[in-house]
Amino acid sequence: MFTSSELQDAARMVHAHMPPTPAHNWPLLAEALGTQVIVKHENHAPTGAFKVRGGITFLDWVRRTYPDAEGIVTATRGNHGQSQARAATAVGLKAKIYVPRGNSTEKNTAMRAYGGEVIEHGEDFDEARIEAMRIAETGAYVPVPPFHRELVRGVATYGLELFTAHLDLDVVYVPIGCGSGICGTIAARDVLGLKTRIIGVVSTQAAGAKLSVEAGHLVETISAQTFADGMAVRGPVQAAFDIYSAGAERIETVSEAEIANAIRLYYTATHNITEGAGAAALAVALREKTQNRGAKVGLILSGGNIDMGWFATLLAGGTPET
């Protein structure tokens, strides 16, 4: 998907705006998984999630490709929107960000703080996305699709950081929403010529990516009602599917209860707060601990932006309702 020089250039660009995120081995997680584990802490990125990287490279591309653009327009459940608002504001552009009604109050507040204009539309991400792309056709705002080569090039820098520091990883678990995270991880692995197995993770409530890989073509789900809002996508993206269907070993589903348990384990074992998608990789790794015994396991903790009310419910032993 990318040459080594393209990813190295992206890394230099990203690192001019943020330092590399840490990758830690946590003994209590190793104890829980029965093997060595490395956590890539994208929750320590400036917006609290990996998406910030793609915003940097995408807005650089926008400024070069559309020098007269007034701004960008996109849809999100929160982390992508924070990334785009932050990056657009940094280069003097406006950002219109569409979210579904009832979206995370705290993520909406953060997007506004980064300079974004947040507009509620539709009942889920997919309806908000359709409206955002319709608005893009009517004005001087450049559309930011959920998946784009320049977004992935930026996101791939976390994989480059992780694999460069840990060339001996046997398997890496990655959550899937629209697919930039897993595709970036695959791209970084392939550029470095590694044999690391990459396993995608989706919610049982939004399993379109897994169903699509199994069917050999895109399969859209009826709904995506999961508190792991970073994975709450009904319709998979063809360009992403083309990459992860070939480059990932397989895709696994994870239940709401399993995600909730993984969030609690991250907190007790590492004192890191994770959102639903951020804990999904750990949830599947816990289920597969027997087959991973003796392996070196990588987990992508993709983000930590969870509403306080949901987190309180989780710490009390419950599972948030959506």
Throw out a few tags for this protein.
single chain; 322 residues; alpha/beta; Rossmann fold; 6-stranded mixed β-sheet; 4-stranded parallel β-sheet; 16% strand
Plain-language structure description:
There is one protein chain. With 322 residues, the protein is α/β, with parallel strands linked by helices. The protein folds into 2 domains: 4-50 and 149-315, Rossmann fold, CATH 3.40.50; 52-144, 3-Layer(aba) Sandwich (Rossmann fold), CATH 3.40.50. Helices cover 46% and strands 16% of the residues. The protein contains 13 helices and 10 strands. The protein has helices at 4-15, 27-33, 52-65, 79-90, 105-113, 125-136, 149-165, 180-191, 208-215, 238-247, 256-270, 276-287, 308-315; strands at 23-24, 36-41, 71-75, 94-99, 117-120, 141-144, 171-175, 197-203, 250-254, 296-301. Helix 8 (180-191) links the parallel strand 7 and strand 8 (197-203). Helix 1 crosses helix 7 (149-165) and helix 11 crosses helix 12. The longest helix has 17 residues, at 149-165. It is globular and about 55 Å long. The mean pLDDT is 96.
Provide the CATH topology of the largest domain: Rossmann fold
Using the coordinates above, name the CATH class of the largest domain. Alpha Beta
Integer count of domains: 2
Low-confidence stretches: none
Question: How far is it from the N-terminal to the C-terminal residue, by CA?
Answer: 36 Å
Mean pLDDT level: 96
CATH architecture of the largest domain: 3-Layer(aba) Sandwich
- How many strand elements? 10
Helical residue percent? Answer: 40-55%
Secondary-structure element series: HEHEHEHEHEHEHEHEHHEHHEH
